[in-house]
Fold these 3 entries.
Entry 1:
Amino acid sequence: MNLGFLVGVFGVLILSHAAYSTIQYRGLLKIMEEEFSRPPINVILELIIGLALCMWAALTFPGKFLSIHPDSDENRAVFLPDNSDFMIFNHRGRLFPPQIDMKF
Amino acid sequence: MGSSEKRSKDIMSDIPTFSAENLQNNLKVIQNSRTFLSIIAGVLAGIIGFNGLIGFVFYFVVMLITSVGLMAKAGFSADLYFDSWNRVLFDGFLGGLMSFVLFWTFAYDLVHIF
């Protein structure tokens, strides 16, 4: 569990509290026999803050973007496999040298 | 022999080499972000009490903000992480619409009807 997940949970809790406040406000309007036009200001502020927190959580919690280019620093091969005896370079493929500039 | 070798070299140099695993990871991250924000947008639309087309306009506004956020997350250089800009901006734009409508009607019923 990390910060993004906690922020997302906190945002959902704020939205839940905003929903509960709106339910209370609707009950109050029923008592006063008035029509519902929009939620009160504090509920709107809670909704905006909840949306901002959930937006931040949605952009951080699912994970980072990884580079798709094989020659970037993130995709460097930093170790060789254990079975080095099976790595044979002298085969018929040497007639077609690869054009990929791999960094090892 | 020389021409066939040259042709194979040209074919190999024309095809760009991408890391498919990392591209799949990036697309999965985008899908998860958009799905979660579709659900949150539905809950917000229900609590505020949106009806009709205003709710769908709200959904597209939230998706646009998500696109800007994903652009910022990619560092405004989509070439490093994706094969085109459309992957960041528009991929999955309509995918969360059903989740949005589901949670929109659910939250509206909870808050305004029951």
Entry 2:
Amino acid sequence: MTHLQSLAASIRVIQNSYKMQMAENVTRNTFQFTLALQPVLFTLLSVGIYRFAGKPDLSLYGIIGSGLIGMWNANLWTSGFIVQGERWSGTLELLLATPSSLMVVLFGKSLSNASASLGAIFITFLTGALVFRVPLAIEDPLGFFVGLILTLLALTTLGLVLGTLFVLTRAAGNMTQVLNYPIFILSGLTFPITTLPLWTRPLSWALAPSWGSQALGQAAGLSDEALMPAFLWLIVLALIYFLIGLVAYRRIERIARAKGGLQEF
Amino acid sequence: MPAILVENLTRIYETTTGVIRRKKKEITALDEIDLTVEAGELFGLLGPNGAGKTTLTKILATILLPTSGTVRVLGMDAVAQEKELRHRLGILFGGERGLYWRLTGRQNIQYFADLYRVPPAEVKSRVPELLELVGLSDRADERVEGYSRGMKQRLHVARCLIHDPDVLLLDEPTLGLDPVAAREIRGIIRGLNDQGKTVFLTSHYMFEIDALCERVAVLNKGKILMVDTPSALKDLVADLEVVEIECLGAPANVLEDLRQHPRLQDMRVETREHKQILHLQAPAGSELVQEFLQILKEVRVEKVITRQPTLEDAYVRLVGEEALHI
């Protein structure tokens, strides 16, 4: 098989893993809840709190944060559960036994989750408009769209890192839950990170949702800062996550083969 | 060149116990085993639970690394050349797991075709061919969750054949199937071997190994006890005959009296619903039936048969009591 044929085969694996994941997700109640209902609840809570506190000007911030929480949730939950689901169904070992890299499979599945999670942003904006009459005016629609795509890419690669690490543990589902809220808070999705102690700042910078929130907020008109730094950070983080995923995967595949037990759950 | 060559293979698992004071414990699943399977052979592996059958299958399948020793499949190193080797191996683990239940049978096979990098043009023709082979053409577009156990197992067979592998590693392919479904799977396995595929088969059922395999290895506690033809294995008990007594409620002390009979070679008690079936191995021509029935005089006996020893009897003799836990 030539390099070109091998690349074409890998792209087919990504495409079909994407489709498979999508086909499976639409039949899952948890996914439907995470993607459709949870963003509504978060928007009601978040925007409601800002309104109750007399800060209606933060409504759009609340909507974007809730949307990103929805995206993150859909991503993290499903990335954690990609591996756990494969473990439960006994397919993880079979995937490892194929000539395709498990990382390529996980990339296709993470991309599928991430793109489906875009729906969360749409739902939060719709909830904000219908319930709180927040106008759907985005100051820089192109910037918003680019920010959304870059956020999506960064979340996919972050999902890939987590999915890869989850290959080694049977507690992927529990870890997913433990990771949820610290990341919401550190990424400034519930309230601005400027309210957090200064020492938490590097942690926030290392998380893609922080920059996604910043980019989308700026594009929506919440601040006058330039969009480019946030875009660059998202690209850099996506690359870093991807490289971490790549290095981790090479080690993890070896560890998984050495330890055995991929069928246990 | 043999299809499978295993030399001095050892696999040790490490487990830990305790929460605060964690203690490491080593379990030897395979202990310096040697094995050769020729190309085109249908080779069987027998052994009680925990003997190391699945560990060996997983090492051959390249998804588990040995602790030491050499494993070559089709001349390739199963540790270092796993990517090349995986194109040529078909793997099937018995049971209902290993499929995407929310997807259709066809989607399952197509997905694995891509994972095995089968060219799209070939996928188009191979998927319907395989669905036809395993008799699932009519139900191929239904979700797997609605399939019976036998249908899932047949789908497993189709999945593991999608890339037209040279060597099939089948771990308990008829596990839990009803007799008709199991017979269908056996027919497919025989057909695949007739086409020239090398088959490495572990099975729960002795008669299956006897009926299908040219050679058989008996594995116990990680060691190979014997590798030979099923008939050579049966020769181990050629000097015996087996008296099978079907009875109801034989108490433990009576069974112990039977076990103490001086000419009894071995005894196995099988429980089938409310009945006990006693398999008593005695020297051929010893005519001990009356003596056995005398010991069982207080017990309701429903049926008595004297028969030639089977592969199962030979296996019991070789492995001992643990043979009952296959």
Entry 3:
Amino acid sequence: MEAGIPLNWVLALSAVLFSLGALGVLIKRNIIVMFMSIELMLNAANIALVAFSKAHNNLDGQVIVFFTMTLAAAEVAIGLAIIVALFRLRRTVDADKATLLRW
Amino acid sequence: MPEVHGTTAWTVMKGFVEEWWVVILVLVFPLAGFIVNGLWGRRLPRPIVSIVACGSIAGAFLASLYLLALNIALPPEQRSIQVSVYPWLEAGPIKIPFALLFDPLSVTMALTVSGVSFLIHVYSVGYMAGDEEFSRYFALLNLFVFFMLLLVLAGNLATMFIGWEGVGLCSFQLISFWFTRERAAEAGRKAFIVTRLGDFGFLVAVLGLLAIFGTLDFGDIARAIHENELVSPWWGGKIAALDALNKPTAVGLTLGTLICLGLFMGAVGKSAQFPLYVWLPDAMEGPTPVSALIHAATMVTAGVYMVARLHFLFEQAPLALLVVAVIGAFTAAYAATMGCVENDIKRVLAYSTISQLGYMFLACGLGAYIAGIYHLVTHAFFKALLFLCAGSVMHAMHDVLDIRRMGGLAKKMRTTALTFWIGGLALAGLIPSGLFSKDAILHAAEKQKALWALGLFTAVLTAFYTTRLGIKVFHGKPRDEHLHEHAHESPDIMTIPMILLALGTIAVSVLWMPAFVPGKWAILPEYLRAVLGEVHEPTAQEALHSTFWAVGAALVGLVVALFAYALKPGALWSLARVLPWLYQLVAGKYFVDEIYAALITRPGRRISEFVSAHFDLGVIDATVNGIGWLTAKFGSAVRRTQTGFVRNYALYFVGAAVLLLIYMLVRGLTMAR
């Protein structure tokens, strides 16, 4: 990577974003926020992939990113549908209230 | 062609007969009959069931006839052909195909089996007409014929074993056909378990052969033995086949002798020889045509056939052959004595079957395989005939079996009486074909005086009990007026097979007549020579001598029986009074059943009860229950982790991912160093 942002910086950004996303999933109770945090994690991974792709002069990483984005779109469609259905049923988006499937 | 010297050189060609499908067809017909009647028989009208059942066996018979024509058309030394239908068991160097054998011996057997079976099927249509389970009966009968044909047409011991066990299964099913009767169900179980004892020896011997020769093909083993090829037995190395068979074992017998004794153990069980004969008299609980088909004409002859088929192996173990001959001769005489005092019409015939099978083993044990097979064929005819006559009598007498309640039936049942006497005299060895086949065996035994004497003694007894049976059933005054009133001849569908079998009984004698009969009458020995070896045809003088003794012995029995039962009734009872202990011993069937019960059945039952109470409940059930209990406990312990909180699961995810990351980091660092 000549004359640009060094690889490590980008990776650090990716790691920070990923950690924030994971933290969000773990500590937030609002499903929509958790959902957004998951998107954050996905995109953190994307950044890392693109960075490696550029560093190694190999396009595979960027191709995977496209797949990830497609996947994310599909995931959003299904996830939001589930959230809407849950909201209609329970009148809430609190993840800790949906604990029916347990021992 | 290998050089022929001394014993038999039997060569089998592997490969292709142009019309090999006929061999398959012989098997396909009965199997198709079983499938049709077994699956849809209940819904089909009875005439259709009958036509399917009889037609399939007729098809098998015609296919067998065609096989015979094909076989005869080949030059004599090329008549043994093995057809591998498909590769069946293959593991490394061991290759066991599903193979069929097409040779004079198997064709002879297939013809006998399918021919006699066909007539019995036709008879059954009349005999079973009133039975509710008509279709089940015929489905099982067809399946039985299929397995029997598979047994005789098998090209290796593994394929033969399918047939061997298959006929055992069908026999069990058919003996306990009327399973709601306790006695029938018990007789079926007894037959199954007793023959299983013999089959154990058979299976061990088969595995022994596989371990030595690496093949189970009859032809391959015959060649290996005949040419003394190098084989690689399981103990390693390469060794000549005969040396492998002569290898001494820990019990003092050679390996070959042990294997042959194991095989013979199977034959003893299946062919009801001493000491495993006890199942056959009880097997008379089944329908009478079943007794005719299975327990006289076909299945019980499987043991004789097997010994003849593997004669090249038995010849390498003279001791085993001696055992075969001695057991055969002993059983022949032993069973005949019980036939003399039995009062159940079917059981008399059952004992005579055991006795005649003993003759066949005697012949095989003496190396006179062709005489044994000849007696097998003639016996199939006249014994099937006798059983069918017994069935006809039962039909007339409303299932009464006790000959003490019969008598004078000849006037009411002319056909049955006439055909019975033809079969009976053939059994007694007084008219062809029984005369000729029994002669051939007794002639072969002449050199072994002790066995010969036993054979002649049996001939006396055979004539005695056959005559006794005939007189008590068909002649004299009726002993039960009421039963006699209602007696009537059976319908044509039953009498016609009887007439045909009677004609067949006499007709098969053309296959081999003694030397003093003018003309060349050695069709069967000529035909079987390629498989079973040469026969030393006696001179006319010798043949006459042996026939003189055999007929003389039979006449003695006949005259004594006539005297005791027709001319001076009651004479034998006085004999029983003179030697009451002997009479009690024989009439009690030597108390063998009681001895077995005391020595084996009851201790076995007690051990089973103990094991079921302690080992089964205490160990097996406890283990299974313990595993179940443990699983449940473990499940309720770990189910606490399923909180239902999504964020909890996410934490597990992240935690696991972090652990994985740490592991990879550590590993990467250590490896980099």
